[in-house]
Amino acid sequence: MNEVTVLPHWTLAQAINGLVRHGVPAISVWRERLHELGVAEAARRIAGSGLKVSGICFTGMISSPDVAEAAQAMDDTRRAIEEAATLKSQCLIFLAGAVDARDKDLKATRARVLERLAALIPDLRAAKVKLALEPLHPTACATRSVLSTVKLANDWCDALAAEDVFGVAIDVYTTWWDPEIESEIARAGKRICAFHVSDWLADTQDLRLDRGMMGDGVIDIPALRRAVEAAGYTGLIEVEIFSARNWWKRDADEVVQVVKQRFQSAV
Ligand code: ZN
Predict the structure, then answer these.
(1) DSSP state at residue 212
(2) 137 Cα–ligand 1 center, Å
(3) 3-266 domain in CATH 3.90.380.10?
(4) pTM of the full predicted structure?
(5) Is 172:219 a contact under the CB 8 Å cutoff?
(6) Residues 115-142: pLDDT tens digits?
(7) Per DSSP, what are the bridge partners of residue 243?
(8) Which helix (H) or strand (E) holds 182?
(9) What 3-state DSSP class applies to 25?
(10) ∠ CA 76-82-88 to the nearest 5 degrees?
C-alpha cells in the first residue's frame, strides 16, 4: 500500500498499525509523513511491525536551470537516499522535475537531469540504494517530470550505465496510454524495481488527484502486470491512489478493505 492512498486520514504511525491490522504486507512511505514521525522512529516502528518497505515517495525534482535551486534539490535528494537506506526500502522513487518557464528548453532540461543523476551514483552506491526512475504522464511535463515515457527511462539507464543503482518504476496510471509500453517493459527487464497500480477513470477530473480504484477505470491492469512479470519482476505490487474526489473522503479502514478486494479481482 502506498501511504498516499490513505494520506489524509492516517499519520505514518497510524498507517503502520492500520496496515498490520488489515494484513497488508508492505508500505510505501510518503516523505512528509516520514519527517513528521522522524526517520529513526519510523524505521524502528516499521521493523517492529514486520512490514516491508516497497518504496519511499519521492525525491528528485532536479531539473532547475538555476544553479542554487538545483544544488538545493540535489541536497534533498541525498537526504532522501539516506532515508531510503535507513528504512531498508526496496527503492527510492525519483521524479525528474519539470521544464522551466525561464528557459522553455525541454531538451536541455532532460540533459541537465541526466547529468545530475550521474552525479548521484557515488551516493547511491555508498548507501546501497536503488533509485527508481518513474516516468510520469506527459501532462506532468510542466509541473513534475520531463521523464515522460518508459522508453526515455530505459535510454537514461543505458546512458548512465549503473544498473546496480538505477531502476525503472512502472506506474500503470502514467504509462498505460503508451503505444510502446509492452516492448519498453520487456526492454526494461530486470531494471523494473517498482510496479504501481490504480486506474484511469473515463470521466477523470484532475490529472494528478483523481486516480481511480483498480477496476473502476479503463486500464487493462492484469495485462500490464503480466508484461511486468514476464520481464522478470517479482517484487511488490503497490497500490497508489491519489483521490481527492472519492477515496480520500472515505474512512481509511474502508479504503484498505476495498483495495484488498480489488487487488484480488482487478490486478
Ligand atoms: Zn507511482
Answers:
(1) B
(2) 10
(3) no
(4) 0.97
(5) yes
(6) 999 999 999 999 999 999 999 999 999 9
(7) 210
(8) helix 181-188
(9) coil
(10) 135
The amino acid present at 75, given as its one-letter code, is: D
- Edge-to-edge order in the sheet of strand 92-95: 26-30, 52-60, 92-95, 131-133, 166-171, 192-197, 237-239
Tally Cβ neighbours within 10 Å of residue 40: 9
Measure the N-to-C terminal CA separation of the chain; round to a whole number of Å: 13
Q: d(Cα 136, Cα 207) in Å, to the nearest integer? A: 11
As a whole number, the mean pLDDT across the chain is 98
CA 74, 76, 79, 81 dihedral sign is negative
Whole-number Å distance, alpha carbon 171 to ligand 1 midpoint, is: 5
- pLDDT, tens digit (0-9, with 9 covering 90-100), for 80-103: 999 999 999 999 999 999 999 999
Kindly give the distance from the C-alpha atom of residue 146 to the centroid of ligand 1, in angstroms, as a whole number: 15
β partners of residue 132: 93, 167
By the 8 A CB rule, do 40 and 87 touch?
A: no
- All three cell numbers of 80: 532522501
Confidence of residue 26 (pLDDT cuts 50, 70, 90): very high
As a whole number of angstroms, the distance between CA 145 and CA 137 comes to 8
> Where does residue 101 rank: exposed (0-12), middle (13-18), buried (19+ CB within 10 A)?
exposed
Phi, psi of 123 (to 5 degrees): -65, -45
For residues 179 and 149, is the Cβ–Cβ distance under 8 A? no
C-alpha 95 – ligand 1 centre gap (Å)? 10
Cα 161 to ligand 1 centre (Å) = 24
Burial of 76 (0-12, 13-18, 19+ CB in 10 A): middle
Distance (Å) from CA 258 to ligand 1 centroid: 19
Name residue 43's amino acid: A
